[in-house]
Give the backbone structure.
Amino acid sequence: DAKTTQPTSMDCAEGRAANLPCNHSTISGNEYVYWYRQIHSQGPQYIIHGLKNNETNEMASLIITEDRKSSTLILPHATLRDTAVYYCIVRADYGGATNKLIFGTGTLLAVQP
Amino acid sequence: KAGVTQTPRYLIKTRGQQVTLSCSPISGHRSVSWYQQTPGQGLQFLFEYFSETQRNKGNFPGRFSGRQFSNSRSEMNVSTLELGDSALYLCASSLLQGASDGYTFGSGTRLTVV
């Protein structure tokens, strides 16, 4: 079973920041938070991941709470092309039996013009 | 550089038949994972191969199998197809086993069993 809880859907106005929350209250100390997104009829796309500290890359920012029980993915200026299902995944970052990604149901982000 | 290539893109098969799907990872990537996506069950892990060895396996029946070749290309096979096997089958590659910087997924093979 997925270890994360996300809202089923969210709307965001084009050009505004999209803030996607994720709850992972049972996360272990060695587990990272990963975000992927899946645009309709395509394979999932890696966005960002982090352990404790906030992370930023060219696509998004990841804010992880101090107790690591929740996180927020931020798309600073959402465009129509960001409409997709966003998956939050927790996973230990080492080889072995936990290599697999366990996808939940994700959040459908609809960016409105 | 070329991404993950999956062939064929679409496939229609009849119940009871078998099917083989192919995945070519990004050049230099040695790990290949397979996932099944259905409307009812979402994305589910099938198996992962690294250096021609199956390293992890999901909770699927033995009808689902796979292999990886020395050039890292991978195939998955489903025998005795059932209607419920209709799904989008996705392949993902990474440089190392248990990629810490994310997997790159292909566009998938959409299998329809009739």
